[in-house]
Amino acid sequence: MVTTMLLCSVLVLLAPTMLMALDSSQSSANGVPGSTSGTGNVASHFEPQVAILCDSSARGPEAYHPKYMSEQGEWASDLYSKAACFKDKMDILNYCKKVYPKRDITNIVESSHYLKIASWCRAGSSPGAQIRGKCKTARWVKPFRCLEGPFQSDALLVPENCMFDHIHNQSNCWSFSRWNSTAAVACQEKGLQLRSFAMLLPCGISLFSGVEFVCCPKHFKGDSFMKDS
Ligand SMILES: *[C@@H]1O[C@H](CO)[C@@H](O)[C@H](O)[C@H]1NC(C)=O
Ligand SMILES: *[C@@H]1O[C@H](CO)[C@@H](O)[C@H](O)[C@H]1NC(C)=O
Asked: Which family does it belong to (predicted)?
């Protein structure tokens, strides 16, 4: 069961000019504490994230209050913000800034996987509703990660027999899903299949001009899937 895993990030592979384009965040990416205040005293798995539920029942669309990741690492219902399904990227970025006012939130990116989140509160829920167990809805959603400070690319796990690669092109300022399919095609062209990927080089709100990815042999089985940050 012992497999060799490498943790790869494109930061260490890009040419020096590209490193400068990515700005000065490398020191914190390499483990030297960054200067961002308020990040040193929380559990290392905490990451600012928000989740918005867009759901409809037989009676039509249902509005739910948004949720955010608390510093204790739990999904909290935000009963002080309007219950709504908001999809606009600017609205999601502004929402991140609102729930994490002390953090330097600069961008958002879709999470790389769906999560089942419980206890969604319907519009009109009072603060006591959650305590009284009235928020019962559980749904699979794809949260948004609220990115802090200068952009840092994620580290990806590269299992044995798999390969790490990246594509970047400043003229392609694309969404997460477009880079997902671009990476999938790149793996297919090598006769492999896309296992994990992460965005590079932000060029707008939730827009990026590159992707790093791991391709594995088809039907590859392994347990550890993706490291999130
Ligand atoms: C990437 O695209 C594939 C195929 O459309 C989809 O199944 C997968 O869920 C996408 N990955 C993410 C992380 O969104
Ligand atoms: C970048 O993308 C543009 C537009 O899709 C394409 O014309 C160009 O050849 C690409 N550059 C590189 C270096 O791949």
From this structure: Belongs to the APP family.
